[in-house]
Design a protein that fits this description.
alpha+beta, 5-stranded mixed beta sheet, 3-stranded parallel beta sheet
């Protein structure tokens, strides 16, 4: 196979074609490794290497079922793989550890159904040319399309939280309250916690239905979005998640997402956690599968005050 991450030669390729000829299914494991991502070694590209894409493209031409395993801790632009109609599946494995090989084969052979979610945003390759490495701002600006799923204003190859199953799911949010308008003063006055961000806002019951034919786990992701606090507003924020296990085909299960006042808050410029009036929405999953809207009214309330530096001190007299 390919000799290494940066190896442009084809010296070791000949055995690959013989193995592909004899195979019923082709599995290519590649991506990135510690030779290009480690402490003190910044990557200058988020592309798959040219040699890997060349081999993947040629293997895909065999017309056999083909799976690409993307390994490595960081993300790379998998657009060429996703757009290749001869590639059956793409699986992100990260650095899976000692039992990672067994876990991956359990997924590929159908012994276990996948329910994992991508823990990072996969940016397109041009992202590194859109923002300097020295610009650490999360919010988008003149020379920055933004960072993370909360602020990136481009089109991600795969966004944070992406993940497919061997079945399909639908979801709905059960209404557990009569009003969709909440007074901030009432919410905070009923809070008996030392730190008000820990006080419960509402518990949202989410009914998840397996509409397919395969039993599978399902991770219910609860994202908060809306127009509250100072602009710009984050696109969405993950505020809670819960995992359901082995949801049978044509059956439903209920998961509860507990939101606190802290779940609804934002951090101001001084580091304080503040609950703002405005319009909110809780979304289930990245699509989303379900959504519920509500409004907070009244004056902003500080839930947690961040310690501030002492005021400037002056010295009268001289030191001895």
């Amino acid at each position: 196979g390919i000799g290494g991450q940066g190896d442009p030669t084809t010296n070791n390729w000949l055995p690959v074609w013989d193995a592909a000829d004899k195979s019923d299914i082709i599995i290519f494991a590649g991506g990135i490794d510690n030779s290009v991502e480690s402490e003190g070694m910044d990557r200058v590209s988020i592309n798959w290497s040219g040699a890997q894409l060349d081999m993947i493209g040629q293997l895909a031409q065999y017309g056999k079922p083909m799976v690409v395993l993307q390994m490595g801790g960081g993300q790379i632009d998998s657009s060429p793989i996703v757009s290749n109609p001869n590639i059956s599946a793409l699986l992100w494995g990260g650095y899976p550890g000692q039992d990672g090989g067994v876990a991956i084969m359990d997924i590929l052979t159908g012994k276990r159904a996948p329910a994992g979610r991508l823990p990072a945003t996969q940016y397109p390759s041009e992202y590194i040319r859109q923002v300097p490495m020295t610009n650490m701002s999360l919010r988008p600006g003149p020379n920055n399309p933004g960072r993370t799923y909360k602020w990136y204003n481009g089109t991600a190859v795969f966004e944070f939280g992406s993940g497919m199953h061997y079945t399909n799911f639908s979801a709905s949010i059960a209404s557990t309250y009569n009003s969709k308008n909440f007074s901030i003063s009432s919410l905070t006055s009923n809070c008996n916690e030392t730190y008000m961000d820990r006080c419960t806002f509402r518990n949202f019951a989410v009914d998840v239905h397996n509409t397919g034919s395969v039993a599978s786990d399902y991770v219910a992701l609860g994202f908060l979005t809306g127009s509250f606090g100072p602009q710009p507003y984050p696109k969405k924020s993950l505020v809670n998640y819960q995992r359901l296990f082995n949801v049978k085909p044509a059956s439903s299960e209920t998961v509860t997402l507990n939101l606190t006042l802290g779940s609804l808050s934002r951090i101001d410029e001084m580091g304080n956690r503040v609950l703002y009036p405005g319009d909110y929405a809780l979304m289930i999953d990245t699509m989303p599968l379900a959504m519920v809207n509500f409004t907070l009214s009244g004056q902003p309330a500080m839930l947690d005050k961040w310690p501030q530096p002492p005021p400037a001190r002056t010295q009268n007299g001289t030191y001895y």
